Amino acid sequence: MTEFIAVMTIAILATISPGPDFVLVTKKSLVHGKTPGIYTAIGISLAVMVHVGYTLFGIGYIISQSILLFTVLKTVGSLYLIYIGIKMFLAKKGNNSYKWLDVLT
Predict the structure, then answer these.
(1) Who contacts 40 (Cβ-Cβ below 8 Å, separation ≥6)?
(2) In what helix (H) or strand (E) does residue 86 lie, and over which residues does it extend?
(3) Between 79 and 59, whose confidence is greater?
(4) What pTM did the predictor assign?
(5) Domain locations in the chain?
């Protein structure tokens, strides 16, 4: 039980600390209004809960023990990051200096 509390405390502290998530929620709120900002914050919170959940259930250990599964996940993640990078470079420049954030949404 103490491990669970420790992991949850770390996850909460990491979630509330300013970072890229804060920038994204702030941008959404300023550009699109309060409701999209709230939805973005809820989405980020749910994603963090998923990551904490699979960490607590030991899926990270299972993935680390399966070379094939780890390789597949690494490859899919790499391809996704390449896709985001290509979208970023192909995005049209506009007056908005934060236009590159639109490729993430």
Answers:
(1) 24, 25, 28, 29
(2) helix 67-90
(3) 79
(4) 0.54
(5) 1-57, 65-105
